[in-house]
């Protein structure tokens, strides 16, 4: 490892990107941001660039390039725009690790490019492994790259697995907060609006992942992600609802021992653990006072009220491009729900319809995923537009 690790932060204006920026800024002896990228939030990108002084700032939307240049060129910071620039910036010589903190399918192309170039990945974009986990696993087998998960659950599992033999794992137990509607009846959930779903009890996150938490699609994605990250068979991966979000996940071993990682819900810790290649950074999060915790409770997830949760094992059993279709349809449905164009359970119905109608490919390559993503988006858009809400 080099003395100062040079990092490309994709999605620097989002919740994870901003918290990663804190860590990089507070630890110049360890980290330097050489590339910063954002989707459309050009002002946030400018602010981050003026603070972190990268070599290059990239905005995905080319329309915003003149504005970016105007602010950063006088500061001697290079500027670029567009999806090609995004894929190119991660393979630069002055990048040792890529933090993929973008939302959605868009995280796939730069991750693939970074792995092909042998860069390490701090993976916060869960859709990458959900959409194309088998492809990423194959690419990693031929590359010196390693993936370090940023998601709190997968970071917890990685921490529990430290020093253990993966062959002794009996189960991965992924914890779920249950979201804001955990105790609600199905009828009541059916009437919720985006504003209700955006009030997450424990974590402050972006809008898309907050809705995914409310539907439990997020947990389904995390089970799929765990399968690819740790190479554990689907039947050995399960979720348990733990509303306090203190136990971040657990691993059971074949002697019956269960290891858990606990801590206050603060993403600085898993981000720092990933940037440090599974080493600890002192002071990442405050102490957890166990005496102040009244109780830690656990219950089974309810796929009846949260049907999106049930899609996890369906995706893993059917395989191929199924999870790619589910992800694409979910992105369309969540965007429509956020605009109050469809209801809560229409999100699941949109996805189920896309699974039924999209073409199935058993062993997709990269181009198949691109095609499948486009097809599923078109099918889901049709479905969403057909809903009279
Ligand atoms: Mg998570």
Structural topology:
Blueprint: E1 5-10, H1 15-26, E2 31-38, H2 42-52, E3 56-59, H3 65-72, E4 78-81, H4 83-89, E5 97-100, H5 108-116, E6 120-123, H6 127-141, E7 147-149, H7 152-161, E8 169-176, H8 186-190, H9 194-197, H10 207-215, H11 217-230, E9 237-241, E10 247-253, E11 258-262, H12 268-275, H13 311-318, H14 322-338, H15 344-357, H16 366-386
Parallel strand pairs: 1-2, 1-5, 2-3, 3-4, 5-6, 6-7, 8-9
Antiparallel strand pairs: 8-10, 10-11
Helix pairs in contact: 2-3, 5-6, 6-11, 6-14, 10-14, 11-13, 14-15, 14-16, 15-16
Bound molecules: magnesium ion.
Magnesium ion binds next to helix 7.
Your description of this structure?
There is one protein chain. The chain is an alpha/beta fold and 389 residues long. It is 44% helix and 15% strand. The chain has 16 helices and eleven strands. It has helices at 15-26, 42-52, 65-72, 83-89, 108-116, 127-141, 152-161, 186-190, 194-197, 207-215, 217-230, 268-275, 311-318, 322-338, 344-357, 366-386; strands spanning 5-10, 31-38, 56-59, 78-81, 97-100, 120-123, 147-149, 169-176, 237-241, 247-253, 258-262. The strands form two sheets. A seven-stranded parallel beta sheet has the order 4-3-2-1-5-6-7, with helices on both faces. α3 links the parallel β3 (56-59) and β4. α5 packs parallel to α6, α14 packs parallel to α16 and α15 (344-357) packs across α16 (366-386). The longest helix has 21 residues, at 366-386. The chain is globular, with a radius of gyration of 20 Å. It binds magnesium ion.
